[in-house]
Amino acid sequence: MAPLLAILGAIMAILLAALVLRRRTRRHKSGERN
Residue 26 — pLDDT band, cuts 50, 70, 90? Predict the structure, then answer.
């Protein structure tokens, strides 16, 4: 159970970082269209 939780936590952290980076890059280019 512990390794599973660690893997899930890592995946969630990576997804959060990807979302933040993508949002930061998109915001600069496209403004408020979506």
Answer: low
